[in-house]
Amino acid sequence: MNEKPMSQDEIFNELDKFQAMDCKYSDGRILGSMCTEAHPIAKEAFFKFVDSNLGDPGLFKGTKLIEDTVIKMIGSFLSIENPVGHMVTGGTEANIMAIRSARNMARDSKGIEDGELIVPKSAHFSFKKAADMLNLNLIRVDLDDNYRINPECVEENITENTVAIVGIAGTTELGMIDPIEDLSEIAIQNDVHLHVDAAFGGFSIPFLKERGYDLPNFDFSLEGVKSITVDPHKMGLSPIPSGGILFRDQSYLDAMSVDSPYLTIKNQSTIVGTRLGAASAATYAVMNYLGKEGYANNAIEALDKTDFLAKSLKELGFELIVEPKLNIVAFNHPDLETEELAKLLEERNWKVSCSSYPKAIRIILMNHIKKEHLIELLNDLKDISNSI
Fold first, then answer.
1. Are 174 and 122 contacting, i.e. CB atoms less than 8 angstroms apart?
2. pLDDT over 90 for what percent of the chain?
3. pLDDT of residue 313
4. Hey, which bits of the chain come out as E strands?
5. Are 71 and 97 in contact (CB under 8 A)?
6. What pTM, to 2 d.p., does this model score?
7. Is the pLDDT of residue 179 over 90?
8. In what order do the strands lie in the sheet with 162-168?
9. Which residues contact 384 (CB under 8 A, 6 or more apart)?
10. pLDDT class for 263, splitting at 50, 70, 90?
């Protein structure tokens, strides 16, 4: 650390150099990110509340009211009138909270000590963290031909030690939506907590369904669903870190609350203590600014780009892994290994990611990717294909 203070100009000159090393969403070259540039109104609201701390809400009563309002607003399109929950750092923390609550409730009501967690093979890696942290045996079950969880495999793997089942509404790698209705029935019949990870799909599926898109039910309208993860910092256009966890009622928060005697509240159920209130304010601002109409238009625009890319890839001879349900396209070239194709794209300055199950190039059609970027990408893919 420097001995003497640096000037503001010196500090920001240094920061500019660091920032210049970062990729920029606006370049349209980031193809594999579920995050995008936050909406301007969300950024403004974020900085307005940057000093707030929801870990001690008695000192920030207005910010706490914003958080409660945001959770209720999210609940309004997830088929629940009075949800309970919190704004957290993202899907990982939300998923860990959901499984922690399920484990604690199973331990208290059923005496389960060596718990098991059933997830699809498509589940986000946060569930590996949850199983490790919560001392649970992670059971990864098979997928069907469309890379959705196989309900029969779930039933086969339920035991007296099962504390929770996880379904995904918008899988990280392919954007598939698991048959949550089937999982709900299984959860009810076996008295097991069903958690839905809708980190990606939560801010698009409900609005698309309202516009007539044929997408399955996944939310609290299904009796077996006890908790849902949804990330405003993905399709919600809120700044990072903005995650959400919603539960059906207060008992799920009570199951994991701990005493916090020296704060203005005397118990706390979140994983982290100090929590930035700015994410709640930013999400409140952008949700009110866009409304259901804005989010529906955003989701439809993303699907239009998805359809354009998918059709164009097939015309060029590339092979889609699945027909897209949400705004993710996964594909391969019939004569190139996935890693080789990724390398060739990286050499042309495209920032790609590869799915692991199955191996494929994975492109997420977020707001920062425009049609002109896709045309440039398709031209590069055509050149690559012609050079083989």
1. yes
2. 97
3. 98
4. 84-88, 116-120, 137-141, 162-168, 193-197, 225-230, 243-247, 258-259, 267-268, 319-320, 328-332, 353-356, 359-364
5. no
6. 0.97
7. yes
8. 84-88, 243-247, 225-230, 193-197, 162-168, 116-120, 137-141
9. 333, 336, 341, 344, 345
10. confident
How far is Cα 279 from Cα 281, in angstroms, rounded to an integer? 5
DSSP strand pairing (193-197 vs 225-230): parallel
Q: How many residues belong to the chain?
A: 388
Query: Predicted confidence band at 38 (pLDDT cuts at 50, 70, 90)?
Result: very high
- Between CA 101 and CA 111, with CA 105 as vertex, the angle to 5 degrees is 140
Side-chain half-sphere exposure of 259, counting CA atoms within 13 A: 2
5, 11, 278, 332 from 8: Cα distances, Å: 9, 5, 24, 49
- The answer to whether the beta carbons of residues 138 and 119 sit under 8 Å apart is yes
Task: Give burial (CB, 10 Å; 0-12/13-18/19+) of 191.
Answer: exposed
State both tokens at 325: 């349900």
Please tell me the predicted confidence (pLDDT) of residue 388: 84
Residue 373 scores a pLDDT above 90: yes
Angle CA(217)–CA(218)–CA(222) in degrees, nearest 5? 85
Q: Token digits for 79?
A: 């088929």
- What's the half-sphere exposure (Cβ side, CA atoms, 13 Å) at 384? 26
Tokens of 4: 């003497």
Q: How far apart are CA 75 and CA 21, in angstroms?
A: 39
Nearest to 101 by CA among 220, 232, 250: 250
Residues 155 and 134: their CA atoms lie apart, in Å, by: 23
